[in-house]
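User: Fold this; tokens only.

Assistant: Input:
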Amino acid sequence: MLADENGGNQPLNPDDYEPARDAPDPVVVNNELTYSATITNNGPSSTAGVQMNISLPAGATFVSVSSSQGSCTGTATVNCQLNTLANGAKATVTLVLKPTATGGLSLTVSVSGSEPDPGADNNTVTSVTSVSSNQPSPQPIDGPDFTGSWQSITQSCKGSGATQKCKLKGTVVVENRGTQKADSSALQFYLSDNSAFDAGDTLLASTTTSSIKIGKAKKKKLKVTLPIGSNASGQYVIAVLDPVNSEAERNESNNAVSSGSVP
């Protein structure tokens, strides 16, 4: 297919064609899987009529296909007309599938061109991807890990009705359970109608925590006056640790710490 320095024809070899790269591998069934296949013209002259054919395996559905040049058609067997490749040029086809069954998913890619190819037996490559039934457990990264617990939460009120004045006081213990020291970070307190933090909660106060060594904890106090006429009884105060994600934590899911129901 590719002209060599002596004017003859050179078959595709591993330097010319890169087997389809799969990501992720392994992939969870019914999640999207992306293949990327690249062909290179090692020259020294242009190569015309280059095309790539991809046979979709059983156990996968077609999502999309794109190419860096030319165009692709088909959903069961994908044919990509990549046209002419200049000396040293590359063309890449990106295919997205969705596996529907577990096991080994085999994808076969073949390439051809308008010039005779005396070594066409090496123009077909198969990539195998493992498809699992469960999401792999994320591997924690090294770093700090903020979490915490409420030591106390109280409310005191004076008056009643529209003129009632209430104050909230509490203490939250901020811990670093990670593998690295935690730097100074923001800490925000929210008032919520339930124990889960969400975008509709009301910001009560903002402060910061000083640096915390590995395995250590520090206390932070909350003291805030509620708007006149409002009362926090039956609601929850949620401390949100590192709300702007200034630290690359091992676990971000434990950064919202809810108090019990305010008395």
